[in-house]
Amino acid sequence: MLSKVAGIGWFIAISLSLFGLLGVFLDNKFSTGPIFLILGVIIGSFVSFSGIFRIFKKFNNK
After folding, report:
1. What is the pTM assigned to this prediction?
2. Euclidean distance between the first and final Cα of the chain, in Å?
């Protein structure tokens, strides 16, 4: 049980970090404001929450 909770924390941290860093990279490449960073954080949040939902759904069915 504790490993599942730790796994969820890592999943959130990694997905937000990856999409946030991708947004920073794209902002630097195209010389835009924080547009891609904001989009990256929004997409990362969506990915992490949908992943958490799937994990809890699997955990609840057992």
Report:
1. 0.83
2. 12
Q: Walk along the chain (62 residues) and give the pLDDT tens digit of each residue.
A: 667 777 888 889 999 999 999 999 999 999 999 999 999 999 999 999 998 888 888 878 76
Structure token digits, residue 11 = 């999943």
- Contact at 8 Å (CB) between 15 and 48? yes
Answer for the pair 45, 32: CB distance below 8 angstroms, yes or no.
no
3-state SS, 1-62, equals: CHHHHHHHHHHHHHHHHHHHHHHHHHHHHHCCCCHHHHHHHHHHHHHHHHHHHHHHHHHHHC
Question: What is each CA distance from 45 to 35, 37, 58, 59, in whole angstroms?
Answer: 15, 12, 20, 21
